[in-house]
Protein 1
Amino acid sequence: MVEFAFFVGGVLPYAAAATFVVGMAYRFYVWFRAPQPAEITLYSWPEGSMLRNLLGEVLFFPGLFRSDKILWAMSWVFHVSLALVLVGHFRFFSALLDRGLMALGASAAGIEQMSSLLGGAAGIVILATAASLIIRRQTVQRVREISTLPDYFALLLLVAIIATGDAMRFSSQHFDLTQTRVWAWSLLTFNPVVPQNTAFLVHATLAQLLLMFIPFSKILHWGGIFFTQALMHTR
Amino acid sequence: MYSNDVVIDSINACNDVKALKLYMETCAKCGTCAKVCPVWYGEPTRQYNPAWRSDVIRRVYKKHNTLGGKLLGPLVGAEDLKDGEITEWVDYFYSCTGCRRCAIFCPFGIDNSVITHKARAILDSMGLTPKRLKDVINISLKTGNTDGAPPAALTEAVKFLEEEMKEETGKDVRIPVDQVGAEMFFVPPSGDVLVNPEAIMGIAKEMYKLGISWTMSSGYFDGANYGLFTGDDKSMKEDNKAYVEEAKRLKCKIMLMGECGHAYRVMKFMMEKGRWWGDLPFTIDNVLCFTARMVRDGAFKLDKSGNPDPVTYHDPCNFGRSCGITEEPRQIMRAACADYREMTPSGAHNWCCGGGGGLSAMDDIKLFRMTVSGKKKVEQISATGASIVATPCANCKRQLQQLVEYHKMDVRIGGVHDVVSNAIVL
């Protein structure tokens, strides 16, 4: 158990971070460098600045909104709660966010309450929307007929990560922020001190697997969208 | 019998085109493309699902070009090409009309027509292009038009049309041919010369009224360029070069493209923009934009009573989505028709007629075009209650004509300048 904990909390983080950063950097580099012999002309795109149109597409999925409102709602809420969860996770690694909020006049109890409320809500909503995306893959014909192993694998892995995360938040075995902050700092100083909480270790294992999987999988779409949309919006 | 290595090499070449490379690596398989695809609408089956079709190439690309594909295989959707699979591609990629409607709605802007074009180019290099389309290309390269008509066919058609117009209007409306030094060189699709000549009468009357010097060419009266549809870039450029040379020979100032969306797209957005032949001594315009300008300027009068019946407009994909020309034809239609009706949806969101990407010319898949790819269009036309559909594309016209006959609809098909011909006051 101790060896497993050390591997998950003391070795894997370096491998996962390196794989993700190098993998994504490589992708961005080759996407950026790939030549485009002819311009893609497709109408009608909105007039105006490329950057603004691109951000509009990336942040609000207007194409999806026009064609499939149900998927738009599921997908947009899923991605927004994912963003909330990711931002929230910053609190596990550092007290910086807490200090910043306190400087703005928030109390420690207030921050804890906000975290419970926002983080708890996001944790439930993201589980529900991720599950709904799996159900959609199974029940909507046009999606079922194009869904293969990678589509389900990515979603199931996510659901497992979310479920173990939620389990920690909502169970009596509540996670301990001081422990994870010590852990994060110990990783930066190359002297890992790993929390021995089972739920935490399972959650961390799965999350790191996902992180390493991203540069090789369909989850790449989070990066590809900037390039495909730029291609379409550049005149 | 077909070498997989050759196919795989061509698929690997996706790395050399940013768009293709991104399309290979970015699809989230959300199913939006199928929802907006006219073919999938006509028959909701896996083979007609754009994401599935594109994945035929995507999985092979991943197997050979991504580390994930090499290491993890099916877990990241990578699979090698199966023996003989390539022959099935013909059915898959010639059931896509290349209409690009999916590209408008895809959250990533993935243009499946680019993937279809790539697949067809691979098929072409293996000699698997459907015979009918290959014939059209060869005929065009040999004779200058896709119908293989001799120069006499044009001069005779022109003579006939001039007599018609004389009878109808009492005026000497001319259709000049081979006039070196004319200001405009007019390039229609050959279908508008041989099958639906009413549009050319409209244009001739317009030129007569405006007093513009213009000409057609007896050797080059067909802007259609099927190399675009089969992915045969070499033939496409060869076909195109003949027209550019003819324009130079005629010393025209403007090459005026007729009612043919893909001809204008190749000429304006691919040849001119891509500078295939360097600087050009002429500019490129198209007859929809030209006439719309004249209508806006009030350069001639249109009498709506010439078109009393309800008319609707079908957006050819190559004019609408590929060239951004959606408002101009409508300005003409509204000015020339007493009862103009809009299709829903219209403009860049309009549905394909079901004959795009060269499919319209393929008689062996007529049943597919009538019952599957054209199904949505039939419903759209019926919903307008119009008795005339105007559309500026010879392929759309052929497909729509066959659709209304097949479905026994009381609807006539024509061009935009047909209604101009009926309404223009000389």
Protein 2
Amino acid sequence: MSAITGMVKYQGIIDLKAAKTYVVLALVFFLAIAYGYLLPKFASGILFVYTKSSYVWMLTTSSIFVTVIAGLVGLLVGAFIGSDVIAQEFESGTIIKLFSLPIRRQDIYLGKFIEKFLFSLVLSLIFVLVAIICGYTFSGNQGYFQWLLPFTMGIVLLIIGFSSLGFLFGPLVRQSSFVFGIIFGISLFFMVIYGIIVSKVGYSYGTFAIPFMNMSLVPGSIMNYAINPSGIFHFVYTSFGNSRAYNISTWEYMILNVVFASIEILFILGLGFVLFGKAELRS
Amino acid sequence: MEALVVKNLCKIYSNGKGIKEINLNVEKGKIHALLGNNGSGKSTTMKCITGIVFPDSGSIEVMGNDLRNNDPKVKSRIGFCPDLPTLPKNLTGRQCMHVYGYIRGLSKDQVRLESEDLLEKVGLLDASDVKVSKYSRGMLQRLDLAIAMEGGPDLLILDEPTAGLDPSSATNLRALLKKEASEGQTILLSDHQLSEVERLCSDVTIINEGRTVIESKMSDLLERVKGSFKYVAEFSSVNDKLVCDIEKVSGIVRVDMDHNYSNTLIIYTNKRDQLNEEVSKIAKVLGYSLYSLAESRTTLEDVFLSLVNTEE
């Protein structure tokens, strides 16, 4: 067994034994139920107009509040699983044991990332499957699931995106509660920035570069493209009393979100990789 | 053959603490003691050797292989127990053995077999399914030792393995180390119980303020004071002049103030004849009285204190 595989197992077993994991699972179940059942049933007519027909609830929700749900999934789940991935090792002192073992620091980091990726994949599958079951119960057979795999991968990218901050700030802050707060703070900061820019200036390619907002938009944009590859995505954004309309092809909308989000995630993880490799223990 | 060779190791932390020039040679199959006061640099030296902190300069060789760049192949020959055992609290003892075994690159079967064997060796087999958070300090130390021994490393590095243990746990742990050494295991350890170190270790390196003061075989070190005698002398009062005058007496090696008891001097001498008379005479000239003069055994602690005090 290679050291990286061993590291993935180490992190996996630690996650399975942590109470926090079950909080995250409960959260994923709740958000999936909210997405598949609660919001279509109770929020119809407020945020969107729900039409009970084949796969429409997915399409309707994808264009409007998938951003809200996706933002919550990314922020809450990402913060929960990312805040302690590195910081907890420093906080509890177990990093000393890890650093003394015959494994490169980069491989420790990589092993932890792979485990978090797999964990995010499992959570995303649970989220999507529970949402589909709820949607099926509420709306009947959707009958159209070609969006399923890319949408699930979009959720994975979203969770990894938010949790990547834990990889970046873990070696610096070394306190999981602080890292949790930082993930929240940074995410909310960019969401507010996004709101201000869009309401004042309107949409441009630049708005897709705003971190964490684009990550929140990834699953919805993937779903829109999968459902309607040649379609035009039209939406109206209202904030601070200003209303802005925007038309963009579903292809362009998806590509811009995915590319910008991926570049930012790679940058954050890369920076964390360097910091972790150089992390010094204090005397 | 030497299991570990450290040359001119230097590591200064941002707060100015650290080690300046550490030299260390640990022979294969021996128990080697690394001694020094708190803050002298023992833990930093061990953390440099195990790759936990990056040294500023110097070289480290393990079993003839350069440890530069923290090469995992070279590091696989080292097992380390830090001074405070910190293991994932949600896991049981057995699970800890398994996860660290996997990182060491052991297969599932190897991990299972070695875990059972080592847990039995350290006397934790019965408690192996208990969560680590419920372990006592002694149990944690033993589990940490078992984890360090996974994969059969050539060199075990133990930072104060008996610190915080009750006397019986400490004795058991030392007996276990002695047994391992008798089977050919090389061990580098630090310990504040010098009387125990004297019994356990065959070689010793003393460091002070980040520098190696002396590297020696334990027997050679004790030989340095063998043939000399240690006396504890109590006076009505003592001063520097008294110390100076006694040191001038033929055969007297050194005179130290006893930091634990006032008006008491510790006298190291090569001859015992007429010591009482001569010391008494010197004290009388200075207007003091010699209350008592008793012979005491010279220990590693005396050697350690004399070397460290000389440095200071």
Protein 3
Amino acid sequence: MRTKKKYVLHFPPKLIDKPIISDAVKKYNFEFNILKAYITPEEEGTLVVELSGDDKNLAETEKELKEKGVTVQTIESDIKMIKERCTDCGVCIPLCPTGALEKKEDFSVEFTPERCIACGLCIKACPTKAMVSTI
Amino acid sequence: MGKTIAEINERIKKGKAVVVTAEELIDLKKNSESKKLADEIDVVTTGTFGPMCSSGVFLNFGHSKPKIKFGGGKVYLNGVPAYAGLAAVDVYLGASALLENDPRNNKYPGEFRYGGGHVIEDLLAGKEIELEVTTYGTDCYPRKYIKTRLKLDDLNEAILFNPRNCYQNYNVAVNLSDRTIYTYMGILKPRLGNANYSSAGQLSPLLKDPYLKTIGCGTRIFLGGGIGYVAWWGTQYNPSVKRKENGTPVEGACTLALIGDLKQMKQEFLKGASLTGYGVSLIVGIGIPIPVVDEEILNFAAITDEEIYAPIVDYSNDYPNATGKILGEVNYAQLKSGKIEVMGKKVPTGSLSSYKKAREIAKTLKEWIEKGQFLLTEPVSYFPGPESGYKFKPMRQEEI
């Protein structure tokens, strides 16, 4: 069965010059769409990526990446809204690049995890720490 | 025909008062004459819920055995310093106070995870707070050090006293520079990436009685989920600014100093805030009842978002350098639509205050009045108006 999943991958400094994703693509035959990629000054790499392919192959890919030392996190478990802490102010909304945070007609703030690319701007912006990263 | 506050209170006591929120009034006014509405309606309720840094709490701890004199020493609550230049066991904890060892902006932008506002929220949540005092001994107060745990219930008085709350209108903050900036108006993305505003507009208390004709010293209000009072006009009070014909100022104008017993407030309406790159604050929920004493007041209370304008200010240069320049004016209906136009560019908007909570506060206050639990007050004295010439002055600088 084919599935589509978003991941946040963290690469330790020793792995950033290795063609890990391209090796995995050849071996497990999935499609990938890079949503965001950056390397910190400490030379840790972060890749936000959407993978689609056979679900068994995706599971194998996850396993292999972890074995190689990559931290693998699916996006749904990456950024969360703690509703009780949210005051529905909406200061996060214009910062969200994908519209995952929206103001509804009743002025409440709604978070749609499927649209989130885990950029983390809302975490910095939230005055009451309602947006949290589970990493 | 006008009404007196005493007459309105009689109707509240009998459970006959007609109370509407400012939003409900706006709807009613679409189909009714204001004269008729002014006769029918007794009270209009308002609300606001946003970070207000000039807030804090006076606390009295009672005496330890042997006695200790905080005054002249150093006092920490959960590591946050409190002002102790008062009598033996009184302190004032300010909302913006930071942990002594907080890295501040040394690692820019600082996170400011915990401070005075959070201690106030923790007290309200019933949590145990760590008190640590280091001071000098005297003949009557020999003890020099104490470290102990206590809760809000253990204190004698906990008096919320906020020298500046409830701003009558406020700036819309934008960033014209090429880098992201971190301000008390939130994170502002470069090159007009977003525009942040803070007033609740048509629900905001002082925009519904723009000349403070019914609000003054002693006015009873909703404060932090409990009952509070207007203590005085607030710091930086500035009634003489430019106003629209409907009386609403086109920039920050009047402010209020508020007071109330923290012990009867609720965590839901008083929250610590962390503003990345800026500091900590306290989010305060306030609701003020406007007695409909005549048609003029009714018309003020019915002013809509479309009729209230805020100035757009560049926080990368004009705000920090106090140039006084504004980039334009925008009304609250435009701000609440999610997009405004600044210098020909469509800019997404964000709000620092919660309109949803402001609405909840106005509704709660309405219920209190309808149930006869909350009576209105005649101010003990009124505050200076635009005719007084009272102004907010910049600092005198003869730097040495």
Protein 4
Amino acid sequence: MKNDAKGQIEVVAQIGSFMLSMLMVFIVFSFLIVISGFNPVAVYQGLIVGALGTPGALGQTFIRMGPILFCSLGLAVSFRCGMWNIGSEGQLFLGALAAAVVAIYLPGVPKVIHIILAMAASFLVGGIWAGLCGFLKTRFNANEVITTLLSNFIAIWISFYFLKYYLQPKWAFNPSSLPILSSAELPIILKGTLLHGGILIAVICAFIVWFMMKKTSLGYSIDTVGANKIAAKYSGIKVNRIILISMFISGGLAGLAGMGEVLGVHHLLIRNISPHYGFIAIAAVFIARLNPIGAIFVSFFMGAILNGGRHIQIIMGIPTHLVDILVALFVIFMLLQPLLAKKIITAWFTNFRKTGED
Amino acid sequence: MVLYSAIFTIVTSTVTSAIALLLPALGENISERSGILNIGVEGYMIVGSITSYLFYVSSGNIWLGLLMGMLAGGVLSLIHAVFCITLKCNQVICGIGIWLLGLGLSGYIFRLLDVTTITEKFPPCPIPLLVKIPFFGPAFFNQNIFVYVSLALVLIISIILSKTSWGLLNRGAGDSPFSTEMAGHNVFFIRYISTIICGLLSGLGGAYLAVGILSRFSEGMTNGRGFIAICIVIFGGWNPWKILFGALFFSFIDSFQLYLQVWTKIPYPLLIMLPYLLTIIVVTYISRRSKNIPRKLAIPYIRGGAE
């Protein structure tokens, strides 16, 4: 009975602290809008209308949600293993490159198999790229924050190199590849919008990752390594192997995000395939508190913000960078959430004790 | 003669642009020694860039621009300090947030105000006599005044860190905060000051990059320099002189690849990634036997708390 009450208080504290952090973001962000000379009510209205107002807009929101969900699932796996993989953006670019190569240069493959092959290629390439950084960590103890971060720049330029020198046809003026074969295109799942099947794959992946983390020994090992490497080592877990596997999965999922963009959205490889999806996913995964199922909802929220940001740029002339600021504020203020939760619980119990004494 | 002029160009631009790496690296050195990891150096730099550029364009005074850029970096680092020292949050995540915030803010302000003037550069300020030395004279002693100031800063910081009591406290806050507090010093205060110095120097580095080297602002112009600066600190083993060497080395690689881009047929995307690749290799190599690392780096201090 007593435990039950304590559990309830904890749930209340978690939700309350979450709301408080969100409120702080809201206040700071509104303040920023006001000092840059815009009407915050109009901005929020524009964001909501642009994100959810029409079926087309809603479809766009879902399209943007896809890559964010893929990246944040990947980040959830590596973060829970204690590896701060900041390289999703680069892994996404390489995944897109691999998917494009398979989708353009592999004719005569049946539709579903072609898509699966492209997915496998992007997962493998993204995973190996992230796994390299994991290897530098396990073998040489190189700080993964720095190696993954710098690997973004390298991956983006590698992707551009192959695009410009190999994939771009001679007659093309801008760096873009040939269109992908129709057998590799992801089907449209909602008539009247551009929403493609990638979002379904992403949601299925979310449940797979949830299952892996919750119900398998691999997931348990990843959580243990993330919580305490030394304890994990003495309980017989091969720490280095778990780190490598988690980085591989993490990079692979980010690679799938690139696959979705090429096969579903652009139908060819272009230079700027991602507007910082890999970095936005960092914010998403922290708001979701590293929970794969929570990531589904938060990614939708982030996709809505991005899509709304584009809308307010068109109708109000506000630069889309405003949305980047909002994302950064989420990352910073979500750090306060556990702190606030603890404060709420302490405050509750001190009050409780006082009233008990009276 | 062609070779001579090529080497001369590379060396001159190496020294000029090394400053944009040196200043943030020196700042990061100070804050890491006090136990605070500033992953967001890149953010301080880009905010310093946009602020200095705007103030220089509107006032015409380059020193005002540099000062304002420096202060902007300092303000952003204050946020990091509050979150990581007082509130004891995770320094890596907070740093990433600060970086994204800086990136977003700079791009937002730049797009909103839409200023694209190309500013004037610093005039070169030759040092008499020394400039007459063949080759080295014109390359090293015909730089602008800001380069000399920054080089002098290496000497000053190295003296402060190794010869004064403040340097010892700075080290103590990072190595053994509990004993530092037992000796009657305020660890939080030391860490605050160190973090803000890091922000100021990084902001100055970004400001110099915008108004001193490139004479303009463009989105994301720092291009990972902040992260390379963090690597230079590891490379230099938390020693200002080795950090100066590291900054010159990385800047040399960058100038060299720019030269190759112009004069050879090697595809330029492969050349641009060279400094990043090299940084990863160097960090990997150094990390195997890094000994000088501050023992309590990135670990929040709880007052009177357990070691």
